[in-house]
Records
---
Amino acid sequence: MSEDLDQRAAPLPEAQWHALLEAARGARERAYAPYSHFHVGAALLDEAGRIHAGCNVENAAYPEGVCAEAGALSALVLAGGRRIVAAVVVGAGTEPVTPCGGCRQKLREFGAPSLPVRIADAQGWRGEHTLAALLPSSFGPQNLSTSPLPASQKDSGDAS
Ligand SMILES: O=c1ccn([C@H]2C[C@H](O)[C@@H](CO)O2)c(=O)[nH]1
Ligand SMILES: [Zn+2]
């Protein structure tokens, strides 16, 4: 196993998970969801150890609404991040909120199949999934000859 894969396999310290949870909860409080009333917050840890948060932003033209994960991803890219190391999504109700299909693909652009995605609600953690479990047999940057990823960061589409 390469050093790169070893690093990704190392579990994230709980203190960092907690910081991500707090960032996602804070973002969720800023959600603009007057139509669904379903407030979501997300936080992403990048390769430099920085946390980027986002909330869902709905629109009177319903399909133009943006998910919390997409907002956090934009913040990560704007800050110069290129890798997602860990992700947290915080929803509202009693059912855990996992990222929608579109967001799973968006996360795949900057996250390895081994990316851990934790789900939480007001009570606390509700589960952890790899991106590979959420998006099996995924299509990612490594599938294109124009992939922006260096060889060391490419890994097979479905490995977790
Ligand atoms: O993982 C999810 C699931 C849903 N939503 C948003 C989209 C919409 O604004 C509202 C209801 O689907 O929740 C997110 O932001 N992230
Ligand atoms: Zn989404």
---
Amino acid sequence: MHSVSNSGAIKLSSGNNINQKKDNRKHKVKITHQTPVMGQLPATTSSQPKVDTGDHGYILEDVPHLTDYIPHLPTYPNPLQDNPAYAVVKQYFVDTDDTVAQKIVVHANSPRGIHFRRAGPRQKVYFKSDDVHACIVTCGGLCPGLNTVIREIVGSLHDMYGVKRIEGIEGGYQGFYSRNTIQLTPKKVNGIHKRGGTIIGTSRGGYDNKKIVNSIQDRGINQVYIIGGDGTQKGASAIYEEVRKRGLQVAVVGIPKTIDNDIPVIDQSFGFDTAVEEAQRAINAAHVEAESNENCIGLVKLMGRNSGFIAMYATLASRDVDCCLIPESPFYLEGPGGLFEYIEKRIKENGHMVIVVAEGAGQDLVAESLRANDNKDASGNKLLDDVGLWLSQKIKDHFKKQTEMEINLKYIDPTYMIRAVPSNASDNVYCTLLAQSAVHGAMSGYTGFTVGPVHGRECYLPFYRITEKQNKVVITDRMWARMLSSTHQPSFLSTKDIIESFTDEAPPTQLLDDQVADNSLVTKETTIC
Ligand SMILES: Nc1ncnc2c1ncn2[C@@H]1O[C@H](COP(=O)(O)OP(=O)(O)O)[C@@H](O)[C@H]1O
Ligand SMILES: O=P(O)(O)OC[C@H]1O[C@](O)(COP(=O)(O)O)[C@@H](O)[C@@H]1O
Ligand SMILES: [Mg+2]
């Protein structure tokens, strides 16, 4: 029997008929009374996706469980059942069959589509509290909220499950085999959410799968919490595979971190909200400078290597920005419809303007005028040329040589100031949910997964789902249109470009994948709304 909650969480259970009727009426969907065929596929070998199917096109993209490769593991009652704080919560434990729909905008005849396992505490756990030896590692660039996640993992393990042995791995992945660990206790992490950075340190590079798993095995660690971006999660997935190959009872859990918000599937990544808020300060400063000086342009560079979410949201929030440039939207400088023409128009009209540029924007243009740069950082990420400095120079040169107009340009690069701040209140709550979900998942025996909200519900996601592609701003989407209409900037796109953007790759849509044939639907229903 199927039931659909308002939030999109779908429950596969033998629930009661009254609820069934209510849901059918509410959603006007004819649901036949058949039990979904769960568990049809055999337990997977490593690195194969674990997929179950049910009726009406229902698909569960499940995450691995320790019992997939270590059968007959003993279980224990969840200690939370005796926790007074949760005593009043009705149905505190998540039903093992609860799943969350990936896409919630559907048509009457839509197949039910892809679902993910709902996160949360289970009735049975696969670790005795006294036997748990957990570790936490943070990798990649800084992001507001890292300390909050650390604090909340420690708090959840300790307060909910009575776990005492928790270690921080110092300085990212390489810390597993080259550094000492830091004992993490509730006292040690008290108040760290009010500080930026990560108390256990982070790094790029230094990933050595065998050495890391040896270290996990030698230290007797059986729960590994790995906080980091796409590179980190790829590494976490390989650690899980190696742990599984060795047959270890070790839960490997990823917590996705990216200030750029470029991780797909999840609603948003932690620290993004804080970054957008903090970016307002830089934009305000640029606006104050621009307004107070004659013919002045305030130029702000914001983070966003491949995705322009911070720039787009900061622009939309501010309303003082006249032009926002992001990696997903190519632009050009010279000629009709170009950036210089628009700047000239705005300065003539208004006497000043504010431009926001994401760090990955216009890299093709920058590369044309500077020597080719193939430099990479320690993790193998391409090092970008500074588009902010390049654009400042280009604008100055153009106005000096080509026009009568004297302009004044103030350039602000707040990158490290933004990502070094502590997370704001909303990110703190979000980090708490992520950390609690991660801990519940590991204690329940799930492994090889990452956590995150899908339509507001915390889910367990297979690693491949979040590492296979990057989340990008869809420039044929309503959100980008909202942004364009707030700045009045040119779109820099011809009709031909728009048509090509559809044919190159169909934009993501809320509708299920096999309904994406008609582009008129796609433009109406997209992921960000
Ligand atoms: N494909 C990969 N496989 C395994 N480890 C990786 C991979 N890409 C990056 N890493 C490791 O993950 C860590 C963080 O990666 P990085 O790209 O710097 O940041 P992020 O995790 O934020 O993307 C580094 O220690 C790096 O060596
Ligand atoms: O200077 P660093 O430490 O290499 O980091 C710079 C990069 O990190 C970022 O802040 C993004 O990092 P994450 O997506 O991993 O959070 C980018 O915007 C920027 O290019
Ligand atoms: Mg990355």
